[in-house]
Specification:
71% of the residues lie in helices and 0% in strands. The longest helix is centred in the middle third of the chain and has 52 residues. By secondary structure, it is mostly helical. This is ABC transporter permease. It is found in: Cell membrane. It holds the Pfam family OppC_N.
Length: 305
């Protein structure tokens, strides 16, 4: 019996991946970014959350290669005196967690709604109309509405504590209809096939048929959407932070770092915005390029000979 690892090494997916230089390069860059982000408490030279180690007198120190740079702060400091390199690593971790968390919530809601809508005709019109209504509200409208309620209920200090799960919920609730429509379309095609009819004949329940038989055959488009939606969720968080609806300054994300430094960009402290902006663009770019590779690999219409 071949092990799963042996089957993976002999799979066409790995063969195709290793022969695509762009995919390999993007994967390596993404792996490095993920490792540095989640290992930030270990490898970061400073802790931006520890107020005892932050000195406001160190504010807006330029990068080490600029005049007035300090060897303690390789990429300089922000307006609060925090080390930019450390703050970016911690901020990237927050952005990645928000992106992955929001996509998990989107996928869960969308898959459940899509399965029910595609397989149970009585629920189709109701669920799809709810999805249409949801699509009429943008992420920012949902963020303004929910954010105002939470800030009124918990106050500014309380909002800081629930900011990450709140933004995950906001982005997740705003984007799930894309999953629902995709899964519904796949279910409508799968429910007419012989294996579904055979499952009905032997007396399996609708829930078992949906989750054990139909769902595994609808996951390819879900996987493609998820790779793109992670990047979209990270961008949505950055946009919300730029508008003042995202992460607070005390808990930096890449979006809030860009926002915090925007007012200083023309006064000479360009690094406060430029460095997080470059990191954000790099992160989103490699995720999108990997998503393109996954989409092409899973597309049966493309010649793979």
């Amino acid at each position: 019996m071949r092990t799963r690892w042996q089957r993976f090494k002999e799979s066409y997916m790995l063969y195709s991946f290793l022969r695509d230089p762009m995919a390999v390069t993007c994967f390596v860059i993404l792996a490095v970014l993920f490792f540095t982000a989640f290992a930030a408490p270990i490898i970061a030279p400073h802790d931006p959350y520890n107020t005892k180690t932050i000195d406001i007198m160190n504010a807006q120190i330029p990068p080490i290669w600029e005049h007035g740079g300090n060897p303690q702060f390789l990429l300089g400091t922000d307006a609060q005196g925090r080390d930019m390199l450390s703050t970016m690593l911690y901020g990237m971790r927050v952005s990645i967690l928000i992106g992955i968390g929001a996509v998990c919530l989107q996928a869960f809601l969308g898959i459940v709604v899509g399965l029910l809508s595609g397989y149970i005709k009585r629920l189709d019109n109701i669920l799809m109309r709810i999805a249409d209504v949801q699509l009429s509200f943008s992420t920012y409208m949902v963020a303004i509405f929910i954010g105002a309620i939470v800030q009124a209920a918990f106050g500014v200090a309380g909002y800081d504590e629930v900011a990450v799960p709140l933004i995950i919920v906001i982005i997740g609730l705003a984007e799930w209809p894309q999953y629902a429509r995709t899964v519904r379309a796949s279910v409508l095609a799968e429910r007419k096939k012989e294996y579904v009819e055979a499952a009905r004949i032997i007396g399996l329940s609708k829930i078992r048929i949906m989750w054990r038989h139909i769902l595994p055959n609808t996951l390819s488009p879900v996987l493609v959407i998820s790779t793109v939606q992670v990047a979209n969720a990270i961008m949505s968080e950055a946009a919300l932070s730029f508008l003042g609806l995202g992460m607070p300054v005390t808990k930096p994300s890449l979006g809030s770092l860009i926002t915090a430094g925007f007012e200083y960009i023309f006064s000479g402290s360009w690094w406060i915005t430029i460095f997080p902006g470059i990191l954000l663009v790099t992160l989103i770019l490699v995720i999108n390029l990997l998503g393109d590779w996954v989409r092409d690999f899973l597309n049966p219409k493309l010649y793979k000979g």
